[in-house]
Amino acid sequence: MPNLLLLALLATFPALSTDMYLPAIPTLQVIWNITLPQANLSLVVFFIAFSGCLLIHGPLSDRFGRRPVLIWGIVLFIIGCGLCAIANSITMLILARIVQAAGAAAASALSLALSKDLYEGLVRQKILAYIGVILALCPMLAPSLGGLMLKVASWRWIFACQAVLACAALYGAVKLKEPLSEFTSGGLLAMAGRYVKVFRNVHFLILAFAFSLMTLPHFAFIGGSPDIYITGFGVSEQAFGYYFGINALGIMLGSLVCSRLSQVFSPMRLLIFSLFGLLAGGLFMIQFGGMTPLSVAIPMFCITFSTGFSRPISNNMVLEQVDSDVGAASSILTFEIFFIGAGGMEIIALDWPSKSFVLGILALIGSAIPLISIACIRKSIK
Asked: With contact defined as beta carbons under 8 Å apart, do 253 and 140 qualify?
């Protein structure tokens, strides 16, 4: 399996685990007689467990190699999918999602670490952009596929389908040649010490946190979109997939445009452009969002386009700040992205008068703080 395809498959695990499942949330509310915040716990807990496990898999891969940790993680993900498929209560589903998240964390963290291992400089930035294009196809297709499956089969088949798709990534991981030739040494204390070393890198920490905030409106939309479109506007599960796909298309186009423009303009100029695009989308959402499905979809398209446009540049810029302990650094970056994302999903699940207004506020936060951070340390960024 080509390395690019394997990296793209690994990067899709978080989206695969959530977006295909979104149309089933209103169904589970009815079947198990639970509230939206209770149902959303299966999303929030997934991302919290996912984020915590990221901090384990990264140093483990530095110590024992990318390949064995990756294979173990994918197998664990497949087991978690099976447990989700047989869940008979929200409590059991949440516990199964923790297992699924532990496996998905290995795939997601190592997709970023492998991009650092296998590629360099502008080539890596271009590869990350291509992965962003492929990655966006997952949230474009997954909700529609999930909605279609709900029409012809039980929601349980959604998780069975995830397990089948994970088997393709498992095949690629088995065939992967170990990219590391030098490994870290020591036990748990030594691995923890790797994080201490990374935490001393101030520029890495500032950029990783600031750029992670850019994902706030994106993850909040994932958590709140079923309530906004299906419950609020009364659209069908299948139509919800189309509206959700518009925003996923924004991520894909953003990554694609970034891959083209990166050959002409400097990364910093492109990143600042994307941050102002995110700011504009947030202002548009605050002013006009919530009136109709399109009044939400259009500003969210602007927000997700800007997110997709910025992700290859911002991830590459953060990785450029570290020269060693790449697994640990990749885990910290991915941890922050998804931990902050989990917070956004829980915020949007609260009983707000207008969830679209909240999305706009989160977009303003996700653009303003990175812009301020860049202005403060721009001269010393690698």
From this structure: no
What is the average pLDDT value for the chain, to the nearest integer? 81
**Token pair of 333 as six digits:** 């970056």
Six-digit token pair at 151?
Answer: 């029409």
- Amino acid identity of residue 377, one-letter, is I
**Domain assignments of the chain as residue spans, ordered by start:** 3-380
DSSP per-residue letters across 334-362 = HHHHHHHHHHHHHHHHS--S-HHHHHHHH
**Residue 201: helix, strand or coil by DSSP?**
coil
Decide yes or no: CATH 1.20.1250.20 for domain 3-380.
yes
Give the CA diameter of the chain. Answer: 58
Residue 179 — φ and ψ, nearest 5°? Answer: -80, -20
**How buried is 295 (Cβ within 10 angstroms: 0-12 exposed, 13-18 middle, 19+ buried)?**
middle
Cβ proximity of 246 and 229 under 8 Å:
no
Token readout for 304 is: 């997700």
* Per-residue pLDDT tens over the stretch 30-59: 889 888 778 878 888 887 888 788 778 777
Of 370, 322, 20, 4, give the one whose Cα is nearest residue 164: 20
Could you read off the pLDDT of 232-278 as tens digits, one per residue? 888 887 777 778 778 777 877 887 788 778 777 888 888 899 999 99
Q: Report helix, strand or coil for 78.
A: helix
Sign of CA dihedral 133, 134, 137, 139: negative
Burial of residue 121, with CB atoms counted within 10 A of its CB: 0-12 exposed, 13-18 middle, 19 or more buried: exposed
In contact, 202 and 322? CB cutoff 8 Å: no
- Two tokens at 323? 């020269």
* Identity at 266, one-letter amino acid code: S
**Distance between CA atoms of residues 32 and 85, nearest Å:** 15
Give φ, ψ of 178 to 5 degrees: -55, 120
